[in-house]
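note to self — DONT lose this again. spent like an hour looking for the file last time. sequence + predicted structure for the chain T wanted, 110 res
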Amino acid sequence: MLLGFILVIAAGHFYVALIVLLLNIGIFKEIISLKRNYEKENKIPLFSFINWYFFTVGVFFFYGKLFSSKLSRVVWDPANQFGYFIVSYHNILSFMLWIVGFLIFVLSLK
């Protein structure tokens, strides 16, 4: 176990961040399953989708901020217009994704 931990740390920042992301996904899944109330969830359409949507948007925002300096060197290639757009307009994209999630949540209420 200790040897595995040392190997992961020695692998570099990307692999450590990937393992932290996988742990975050597992913890989020467990927390959602612990606090489950099926009767109330059936009354709210898209309940599970909304939970995972906000989790994904949060991951996009925080990991995008974390790796934006590393990604900017990779995506400056003019052929990669999509990557350039994502890195250049990361803040406004994150904001728009939060607003879309909020609108989906409000529209799903009865």
